[in-house]
Amino acid sequence: MQNDLVDDRLLCEDSPFNLEVDHFSAGIGEILYGKQVDPQRWDALDQNTLADAFYACFSHEVALHPAADYKAEAWFREFFTSGAAAKLRDKTVGKQMLAEAACWEVARKLNAYCNQADDDAGQEGESFDGISRRIRSVKDAAEAATNEANETEKIAQTLGAGLGAKLSAEELQSICDRMRRSLTLKTILDIAGGMVEFRDGIKKKKVAGFDMVDGVCQSGDITRLLPSEIMQLAGGPLLATNMLRRLMENQTLALRKHSQQPVGKGAIVVVIDGSSSMTSTRNSNSGAQPIHEAKALALTMARIAKEQKRWIALVEFGNEDEWKELVMPPDAWDMTQLMVWLEHFFDGGTDFVVLKKLVDAWKRWKLPRGQADVVFATDGCARFDDDVVRVFNQHKKTHDVKCYGLAINSSVGELPLVCDKCWTTHSMGLESQAVREILSNNC
User: Fold this and answer.
1) What does pLDDT average to over the chain?
2) Is the pLDDT of residue 108 over 60?
3) How far apart are CA 191 and CA 290, in angstroms?
4) For residues 292 and 158, what is the distance between their CA atoms, to the nearest angstrom?
5) Which of 95, 219, 242, 398 has its CA 20 to 30 A from that of 18?
């Protein structure tokens, strides 16, 4: 098997690698090298170091190359023998996406160490300071790489990777890079990650099917008979004959089981107030801005839509013509546009004619028919014209829509006129019982 992965060119005495890197890892190193903003910069990582780092994170079995640089050899020996890599490799071995995310930190720390280490690094008689410097470097590399892997895994889970559509390594890397440059996006993804974990932990949706038992009934189905009925078969000819008679006449006691026909699900639509007051943290226990929590809830609802194979429509509204929308089918998410929508913020006023605009947009979107859910969030005291109420309620009836309203740090105002259920809440995060209820019920 080893010969299938490694040839003499990679194992020759003048090999550029410090580990016995296979062709796959060498190719990944070349790809990662090209992904750097400027591979020619003085501090850019070379493709061989990246290949070594990826191989160290990804491969099930690793070995030092006989011609490894003595400083890199000392570093990798410490990395693998000290146990520093164990936690990291438990997460990344065999998982390309996580290994790629983690290998950058391994490569950076290895490169920095090799550039700064003393000439006697790893040699007999090496100074205590030199040994300590290598131990710290390895420890920092393992911790930083593990954090990167954890962050990448969390983002993938938050975005629903694998639910309805595959999140490619390129998309995930792009999102991670964008998150590092955007505090807004990082905050939103962190909050959404908590919501996803909460929902996964308390998911109470029943899976209808043959094994759903809700009582006892009379039946002639032998597969559902109570044990007490079956035991009568061994109670003598009279009891056995009587039991078989009742079985033929559907009179034996049996478990009552039933299945439910799944209701056709339409789109999930999330409408978020993008006014300037949505940045106020005055009444927030979490310290997060309501707009960030609202966008996190929108992202979580989008993930639910993907999981349930439903369309998602995300809308941020403000004054008059301020309208930012994103509509996606469950199997064709546009990750770039999703990140753009999450980061966008109008920072203006609030115009509650938005619900009438939503009805017009619904026709334009041509969403699949089925039971649809609308989550409407605002920090203003809702006031609707009679025409808006009439048009929206007619739309709800025609398209089988349920609407849930969230009033943030405000009274619900006239939300009950258009919403099936509404709440006043001081937070749009998990501190809000309303948000927890929406996530628990999957809308």
Assistant:
1) 85
2) yes
3) 11
4) 15
5) 95
Give me the sign of the Cα torsion angle 342, 343, 346, 347. positive
Residue 202 has pLDDT above 80, yes or no: no
Tokens for 314? Answer: 């995300």
User: Do 26 and 17 meet the contact criterion of CB atoms below 8 Å apart?
Assistant: yes
374: exposed, middle or buried (C-beta count within 10 Å: 0-12, 13-18, 19+)? buried
The two structure tokens encoding residue 366: 């041509």
- Kindly write down the DSSP assignment for every residue of 24-51, as one continuous string: HHHHHHHHHHHHSS-TTSTTPPPHHHHH
CA distance 134 to 36: 26
Does the structure show a pLDDT above 70 at 153?
A: yes
Global pTM reads: 0.68
Inter-helix orientation angle 335-343/169-181, to 10°: 20
**What is the maximal distance between C-alpha atoms in the chain?**
96
The two structure tokens encoding residue 188: 């939103």
SS3 426: coil
Residue-wise burial string across 7-33, b where 16 or more C-beta atoms lie within 10 A, e elsewhere: eeebeeeebbbbbbbbeebbebbeebb
Whether residue 87 is predicted with pLDDT greater than 80 in this model: the reply is yes
Task: Tell me the HSE value of 42 on the side-chain side, using a 13 A CA sphere.
Answer: 1
Tens-digit pLDDT profile for residues 212-264 = 666 788 888 887 888 888 888 888 888 888 888 888 888 888 887 654 444 56
Q: Please state the length of the chain.
A: 443
